[in-house]
Design brief:
five-stranded mixed β-sheet, about 350 residues, alpha/beta, 10 helices
Length: about 350
C-alpha cells in the first residue's frame, strides 16, 4: 500500500468511501447503518443503492474505526464491501451537521444503464504513475467533475466539460469526444467514483483505451509530494472543509451561504461579495440574496440574545478552521519538503 504524506493531528477523522457492490438488500441495510452511526455520534452522508455504497462521514478515531469494522467485517454487509475505495483525512472541527443514510437508485447518478462498472471499467492508474500518463501527447485528459469543482483546481492540460451535473457528461462526450480520433482517454474526479461510471460509459460507446486515476484527486494529493504534483489549486470536498490541498490539509476556500458556490480568496475580495449574503457567482439572484439576508439577520439577532441560530455553529466552525488553515498548509509543505 502506498504510504500517506504526513498529516496534522486533528480531533476528527474523516472517512470517504465508495464501492460498487451487489446490495439488493439496501433498503433493509439503511436503518441498521443509520442506527450504528448515530449511536457512535458519527455525522455525514452515506448513500446506499442496489449498486453499492458512497459517502463521507466524520467522527472520533475510535468511532470511525468501529464503522470501518462494521462495514468491512460485520455480518450485515457480509464481506460485500471488501476492497472498497476508502480515504481517511482529518478535520479541526466536525465538518457535518447531522447524519443521513439515503436510499437512491444509483450511488452516483448518470442515468445510463449501459455504464455498469461491475461488468466493465477502465484501466486504473495508481497516483504515482499518473504524471507520466497525463504528460503523453497521445492522451486526452478529461476532468469529469462539475464546473464549480473545476474552478477551484484541476490537473494541468485537463479539459473542462463545463457540466453542472454528472448526467450532462453524456452530452459532453457525444459533442466533444470521438472514439475514432481519441484513442486514449484519461479521466479523473474527486475520489474515483465518477470515473468508474464515466470510464464504463466511454467503453460502452466504443472508446478503445480508457484510463482513470485510482482513488481520484484525493488519493493523489494524499500520496504524491507537492513538489512533484501536476494538480494546480485545491480540491473541492462536499463538507464544511470546502477544499483540501496536498497532504489533505484543509484549503483556503469557503462557501457562499446564499448559493453554496465555493469561493476563492479572489472571490471574497470581489466587490460583489457580502459575507453570508451574496457572492460574484449569484450576484444576479435576488431571491437567494433575500433568503440569505434574512438568515444572516436571524443569526445576528440570536447572537445578540446570547443564543445560537441553526447553522451558526457551522459558520463559526468554518471561520475557526480558516484561521488555522494557512498555518497547517505551511507546516504540511515544510514537512513534505523535508521528505
Amino acid at each position: 500500500m502506498t504510504s500517506n504524506l504526513p498529516q496534522s493531528a486533528q480531533p476528527f477523522k474523516v472517512m470517504a468511501i465508495y464501492k460498487f457492490a451487489d446490495l439488493p438488500d439496501a433498503e433493509a441495510l439503511q436503518p441498521i447503518l443509520a442506527k450504528f452511526c448515530c449511536s457512535h455520534a458519527i455525522k455525514g452522508t452515506l448513500i446506499l443503492a442496489p449498486e453499492g455504497i458512497n459517502g463521507t462521514v466524520a467522527g472520533t478515531d475510535a468511532d470511525i474505526d468501529a464503522l470501518a469494522d462494521m462495514l468491512f467485517a460485520g455480518p450485515d454487509f457480509a464481506g460485500r464491501l471488501a476492497g472498497a475505495e476508502v480515504k481517511y483525512s482529518s478535520a479541526a472541527e466536525m465538518p457535518f451537521l447531522r447524519m443521513k443514510v439515503r436510499l437512491k437508485p444509483e450511488i452516483v447518478t448518470l442515468r445510463a444503464p449501459e455504464a455498469n462498472p461491475s461488468k466493465q471499467v477502465g484501466t486504473y492508474v495508481e497516483p504515482e504513475n499518473w504524471n507520466a500518463l497525463i504528460e503523453r501527447n497521445d492522451v486526452v485528459l478529461v476532468d469529469t467533475r462539475n464546473d464549480y469543482e473545476v474552478g477551484l483546481g484541476t490537473f494541468q492540460r485537463a479539459l473542462d466539460p463545463a457540466t453542472q451535473t454528472f448526467t450532462e457528461f453524456k452530452d459532453y462526450v457525444a459533442q466533444n469526444l470521438d472514439p475514432a480520433r481519441d484513442k486514449k482517454v484519461a479521466m479523473f474526479c474527486t475520489g474515483g467514483i465518477r470515473c468508474e461510471k464515466a470510464s464504463s460509459y466511454l467503453l460502452s460507446q466504443g472508446f478503445e483505451e480508457v484510463f482513470h486515476l485510482k482513488g481520484g484527486i484525493l488519493k493523489y494529493l494524499e500520496v504524491v509530494p507537492e513538489a512533484e504534483s501536476r494538480f494546480a489549486g485545491e480540491c473541492f470536498v462536499f463538507d464544511e472543509r470546502v477544499s483540501v490541498g496536498h497532504g489533505l490539509v484543509e484549503g483556503d476556500a469557503t462557501l457562499c451561504r446564499a448559493c453554496r458556490h465555493p469561493l476563492t480568496a479572489d472571490d471574497r475580495a470581489h466587490e460583489d461579495y457580502v459575507e453570508g449574503v451574496k457572492c460574484p457567482h449569484c450576484v444576479d439572484d435576488a431571491a437567494k440574496h433575500a433568503a440569505a439576508t434574512e438568515r444572516q439577520k436571524q443569526m445576528d439577532l440570536a447572537r445578540q440574545r446570547g443564543g445560537a441560530h441553526l447553522g451558526d455553529d457551522a459558520v463559526q466552525a468554518a471561520k475557526r478552521a480558516r484561521a488555522a488553515k494557512k498555518a497547517d498548509a505551511e507546516a504540511s509543505r515544510e514537512r513534505n519538503k523535508a521528505g
